Amino acid sequence: MYAKWNINVYTVTFETGEGIEVEAVEVNHGQTVAEPEEPTWDGHEFAGWFKDIGYTEEYDFDTPVEGDFTLFAKWELVETAAQLITKGGKIADLTSTFGPKAGATPTEQELGFYNAGYSYANAAFSIFLYSGDDAIFGGDAEGTEPAWWGYKIALTHLHDNVFIVEKNIGYAVDVPQGVYDYILTGIWRSDLYSGFEFVQFLAAGEILIIEGVDFAGEGGEVDGLIKKYAATSVDNYYGLTITPGTVLPVPTKRGFVFAGWYDNPQYQGEAITTVTAATAATVFYAKWEEAPRLMITFETGITGINVYLVFRFDGEKVKCPADPVREGYTFTGWYTDEAHTTEFDFDTEIVANITLYAKWEEVTGEEE
């Protein structure tokens, strides 16, 4: 009896990352693998094949093969174009690239009202857009009652008529006035439904292009149209040419503190501040953390006469609200103290929580 043996054949795989693909090869047990032709990657120099993705041990091609394995190409940056994904943040002195990608098809929804309350006669689309400074989403025809039953979405303004979905708030009653740039609200009723589902399923990161709205106007009924794009269907980034030593710029975003650039959208690993020769990423993602909110309270001193509190962030200014009305009295201004000795200057930057006090003067019989 004679034993027959078949030699083991192993597969060696080459992982090039963003470089030109190198095909895997099969090698008999005990033989060596031939070093392939160097791959290429625009803007990078090839720096060898390594046994691990951390590039701690370079592979010796004179080593006999004894099993399947993968080799990893190491690259060193020379110069390349990078994309900075800010998710609503802005970078001074850089030009942003924005636009739906070829073939991207939006979901469309008609918009009923901008910056106004609703009534049965004008709520056909059951979807409304409010400035973040509006008194908490007026729910009656005069816009005076909070629409607590509305389904709410926070929007960050990117530019012109373009917005990014910041947060799906839902039915929460406590939606701080002044925290978000805009609020989109959907109303559900058996006879008012068309826009509700559109609003309910909006997700953070999606892009909205809102047409037919004069954002500098007074609001009211509009012939508006909202086009929704998935985040992956839109080019929305700042371009930057990077080389070893490039310091990544610091973006800004209202209501948030910048927490670093990462080479992945999950923000795993260490933040990147300066590009090195070993930097393999060409897309960088900004991480944000919510900034502390500063509260401006308007105290009228009279039960039943209310001015909604407003929130701001450090260094911002607050708009003067509409004058409150009290029968038999004239409102004469907002003051920083209960004794009404110092009138508040609405051109002042807000740096801490403050309370402003209404001053009233009684109307005499002659004035009446």
Order of strands, widest sheet? 7-8-11-9-10-12-13
Query: How many structural domains in the coordinates?
Result: 4
Q: How helical, in percent, are the residues?
A: under 10%
Distance between the termini: 125 Å
Report the β-strand fraction as a percent range.
35-45%
Instruction: Say how many strands there are.
Output: 20
**Structural classification:** mainly beta
Specify the oligomeric state: single chain
Low-confidence stretches: 136-146
Main sheet characteristics: 7 strands, mixed, barrel
Total number of helices = 1
Reading the helices and strands in chain order gives EEEEEEEEEEEHEEEEEEEEE
What spatial form do the alpha-carbon principal axes imply?
Answer: elongated
Mean pLDDT: 88
Task: Report the C-alpha radius of gyration, rounded.
Answer: 30 Å
Set down the secondary structure blueprint.
Blueprint: E1 9-15, E2 25-28, E3 44-50, E4 69-77, E5 80-85, E6 96-100, E7 107-114, E8 127-131, E9 151-159, E10 162-170, E11 182-186, H1 196-200, E12 207-211, E13 220-229, E14 234-242, E15 256-262, E16 283-290, E17 294-299, E18 307-312, E19 329-335, E20 354-362
Parallel strand pairs: 1-4, 5-16, 7-8, 17-20
Antiparallel strand pairs: 1-2, 3-4, 5-14, 6-14, 7-13, 8-11, 9-10, 9-11, 10-12, 12-13, 15-16, 17-18, 19-20
Search tags:
mainly beta; Immunoglobulin-like; elongated; 5-stranded mixed beta sheet; 7-stranded mixed barrel; 368 residues
